[in-house]
Amino acid sequence: MSSRISLVPNKLVVPDKLERTEKIPAIIHEPIVKIDMADLLVAYLEQMSVEYVFGVPGGAIEPLYNALARSARRGGVRPILARHEAGAAFMADGYARETGKIGVCCSTSGPGATNLITGVACAYDNGIPMLVITGQPALHAFGKHPLQESACTGINVLGMFRHCSRYNSLVSHPQQLEPKLVAALQHATLATRGPVHLTIPVDVFRSSSANPAPSYDLRTLLVPSSLVDDAAVQSLRKMLSEARNVVLLIGGWCSEAIDVILQFVAMKGATFVTTPDGKGLVNSYHPLFRGVFGFGGHQSAEDALRDKSVDLILAVGASMGEWNSGGWSDSLLNKRLVHIDESEDHLSRTPMARYHIRGRILAIFNRLVDHMHVAQRDGNFEYERRRVARSQNAALWEPGKMLAAPDKHVSDAIPITPQRLMRELSTLFPIATRFLADTGNSVSWATHYLHPIDRRIGGSRLGGGWLRVTMNFAPMGWAIGGAIGTAAANRDVPVVCITGDGSMLMNGQEISVAVAERLTVIFVVLNDQALGMVKHGQRLAKAEQIGCDLPPTDFAMLARAMGAVGHTIRGPEDLGVLDMGTICARKGPTLLDVLVDPDEVPPMNVRMRALAYTL
Q1: Nearest-5° Cα angle at 274, 534 to 426
Q2: By the 8 A CB rule, do 130 and 188 touch?
Q3: CA angle 439-278-374, nearest 5°?
């Protein structure tokens, strides 16, 4: 119990017996409210308006769950229980993409922490901001071989996370928590975005905080800057004024700026293509759209970039890995390229480009568009003439012109072709639906053949949009957890997870989370009784056919066993009789077990070209 002095009105008796009122010091006894370090950490999450922590509890992380329980009772942050820690990291990834906030996941020490690593590595390779919290045994037990020790004297989890995090530290004293947390969050959300990791011993979690509330306001510390190199933008303006034919490659990191980028496209009369992770930011029916360039992409996009009349290719917000650079295609990576990005890592992958501009993409294109408005006001109508000419030529453009096998897109065959399935999925769901396509055949089919009408969802700085995929690290089952995190973040829209039977067998237990949380997630399983991309890759490469076959599995029955609704789809007619209104309004998951034609080869030429490279 502590005492403090406060000035309060008090009645003072003076010697002449006369009463008068004065302010004098009075001693009052009020307890100073103390919180432990776990409560302080949760208070910072509340400050950032984070709603959920995805994870699996255990002894070393118990104080954090106690703090989350207290927060939940007052309407603050609450935990969502994953079935596997990798699923928790995938959920945090999906939550971050949907909200633009940081995703938070946690685990206990030892195997709980190592289980997280695949999901964290995926977020690292895709630049998704994530706070990863792992527990540790008490400090005094380090080196004594306590249960699930994962400090430097045990299975060194800190060393493991070092290679897949932007910031990675052991909090070995209570007074380290706040400065290390702030530093970690700045690394996660500003400039080189990605996951950050703090591992915290259980006794540090339980220690009393010297402060009853956060010392820092993260809402001001984590505001992104709008720094732009004015000289670089001026140089780009000059290039654009001299160029007669410009093509834009829109990457997944254009979400925040997509409106102004498309305004620039229209004013310039330029055509544009997207990377696979940028496809979800645009409407496939835009008259100036020429398809997806890269994995699962379209020949029309390749042709647009190879056109000899093109003077400039503006690659915007594209990370330039294998899948979104066309397997490092020379049609893109050449002297016509101007690479615009906020990330120095992305720019470092295009040393052959004519020009680099680093800065916040929204700020750069705002300046370009403002300049074009000034030119229009001053009577420079040359860009207007070019825009009208190119728009007239583009007026009849539609996605059907891009498809590699348009006949399979409308086929009535049984089993259903994956191409026809994508066509049906394009029409069955409301406009606000989010689609997540999983690693493997799922992302290839969705990138090429999924074209919903009138879709575009941008806004946050993260890779959002109506279609979400994972580039680079690409773990199987990412979309299953990612869809759950997306649906938890936005409970007002349906979320469709397009995945394969291999991914479902690997991570399908997370459907139970969607059941528990009453989330509207529609799991569409492409059931071809194989690891499809492995199988077709082996065939195309004339390699041994081995290690790719799976036994028949009734995923609809499996879904029902976990409390979800399950339907088996064999042909287009089975999709036609579904009551999609009821499915999309249902507070709980639905699984469509789609028996697809196993012999249909997905559009994966980019991958085969990269695999065929030899020294």
Answers
A1: 70
A2: yes
A3: 175
